[in-house]
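Example 4.3 (complexes with small molecules)
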Amino acid sequence: MMSALDTAVVRDLKSLYSSKGFEEKYTYTKAGLGAVCTWAGTEFTLWSPIASQVWLLLYKTGEDEQPYQKLVMAKGPQGTWKYCTKKNLHGVYYQYDLLMGQNHVITGDPYAKACGINGQKSMAVDLSKTDPKNWDLDQAPPRPAENIIYEIHIKEFSWDPAGGFPKDFRGKYKAFTCEHTSLNNDGIHATGLDYLKNLGITHVQLMPAFDYATVDERGEDSQFNWGYDPQNYNVPEGSYATDPSRGEVRIREFKEMIQSLHKNGFRVIMDVVYNHTYSLDSPLQKTVPWYYYRSRADGTGANGSACGNDIASERSMCARYILESVLYWAKEYHIDGFRFDLMGLLDTELMNTIQKNLDDAFGPGEKLIFGEPWSAGATPMENGHIPALKKNAKYLNAHVGMFCDNTRDAIKGHVFEGNEPGFVNGRSGLEEDILRSARAWCNTCVPVKAPSQVISYVSAHDNWTLWDKLFLATAPDSGLSVEKAYRLAAGIYMTCQGSLFMLSGEEFGRTKEGLENSYNAPIQINRLDWTQAWANKKLVDFYRGLIALRKQLPGLCDKTDKAYLRFKECFIRPMAAGYLLDNRLKDGSFCEGSRWDEIFVIYNSGIKARTFTLPEGTWEFLANSRDSFLWQTHETVKNNSITAAPQSFVILGLPGGMTANEMDLWKTRLAKSGTK
Ligand code: CA
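Answer. The structure with calcium ion bound is encoded below.
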């Protein structure tokens, strides 16, 4: 293995891989990289143009030290190596032995679809044998009026003993197949899937669920990590499986999880981390050194990820690798969307290609894709490729989304400066930014094409939870209330255009006891606290009402590039802002009807009440900071003026314009959305 210090060698490789000759001679375009295992036989194909010979090593288990067979692989076209047999090798573990110069390099398969415990040995898998019962009938629920994405870590979801999950399934994929769980098994207070259904979220976003390195799959249950350290991109993580040593088990259990989530009405988004790997000691690096990783002109490794290795997404075979991986998860595991970690380290061309391929394969807009439009540092992207950063949004297709840090920080304050408040807890001068947030920053200084490019949010797994942040940033002598700031923050982002996103537990005031980065903190701090979820029922109900209301507001759900034109009037006062919005149904909306032709929204973050005059008409109360279910009461505003209490918001609606048919549909949906 080459050390990171062999900079001269790295420089030579960089110029080799960047040359036209290499690109023409070694770009492999045929399908079938990895091990393809069916009833007809098994074919192994590895791409390694710089190996001088490759052997296939076969093992009986994923833990055997010695192979039971060593087979010579034949040289194929474009730098590939092949071994074919008529035998179905399902369940056989394997590695490659590559001769590089004088050295033998032993590695797992970068294209592995299954692996043994801790991912060091790959496994040939006949995928048809891993399908749970009725997998062919599995289908995602219909596309919702709005994307309301709920971010969950697989272990965090069910580890808390109070959640009532069976002991053997706690922290596992299998927990997602448990229906009707309840708090301490009391049969009354729903947890798990029923709780999420009740809340009304539409998408479950799984934090890293591909095989990652930092949790020992043989080790104690007390281990915890978020999992942003990829090891096998195309294999599910083993520590969430009931038996990580048998390669097919994690695959079947992952599929069972997806099947159950779909059945219970959720679409599933996967968090994918193609920008870096756990380390440079990876199958990608071992099979083609420094091809899949970026290096600087001086031969040192790139570090835009702050993890010591940046994936070179712009190189043909690397772009192919990432695209195929995404398509594989979508096809084989029925994943409905992808959240790209540090998307700013990938290039715009690749992101657009992924989006187009998903649209072509599954229908326009069927699969949601979005990512973090930033990186931890600069990265030496080659050949004029453009990083998928926020400033380059104009180069991204309108349906590649981005987390909106502008909205997040305007509402709650700077994400890294704990004590710095935002609009909701006393910082002045942010009124205009709050209105820009409502318009999903379209037609502003941020180069956003349409709300389809924007994820509006105030909490995610990174940084402080919303509760911890607002607690830190609200000065005790300010006269401001953390709880009011919290409800105002929710009221604001839920009335912003763009798709909505939240960290699990935001709806019950989740805390990590002030810990800013909990990526490897004990599970006790990270676990979803089901007792707290019920202790804070009032806040959960408040979120539930806002979510149900949001789905009835096509003016906010509009993802088209004309959506910002719906804002008919915007106004600001010191520490207050508001808008009048055209809420009528238009083409391209998934809302079934619109009860209100216009909505009027006021955000008041000041410590004094504020009164606003309303446009003509009989306005109905839809929600305010105390009650998010006012829209069920049809109570109207008197005197055409409205007062927003200190640190609060008000949402009003002007009824009208619904056909009888639309009204019936609307009532049907209303019945499904639950009551206060
Ligand atoms: Ca693992």
